[in-house]
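Researcher: Go.
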Amino acid sequence: MMTDNDRDALVDFLARHVDTQILTHAEVSAFLDFCDFEIIERGQIIADIGEVGESLYFLLDGTAELIVGPTTNEVPVGQIHAGEMLGEMSFFDRQPRNVRMRARSSVRLLRLPREKYNRLRLEHPVFTVLLLEYAIVSLDHLYRRTSTDVAQLNQYIHSMGG
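Model: Structure:
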């Protein structure tokens, strides 16, 4: 259950990460009624390979990692930091996930289930547009970090004569 202090902190969080200038404090607070607040302990799976995304996640605190491969031979391929969205690719394209999302540390997140997202689209279309912009920015951050990592690895391999 979310306390009033939790709700105020979450409104402040959203105001830092989503352009809420066109929304009232009450509208931002109302968005929280569509979300579930969750704490995921370090090492727990948030979403797994092969699942179709039925929720969007907003990482409030902590770090999540993206992993490929079977659990016996996992390879980390990216990280999601506080302030970013998780699960948006599978949620929007409805294709099975090709990465596992796991809490790298204890994480606090908001979860927006598909049925509540569909209601949000009808009742608060402006907020839905802001969420789509947020998803694009989160994907951009992930892409830029990943492409930088790949470029550095490629540079290292070439410097070693490979």
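Model: The chain has five helices and eight strands.
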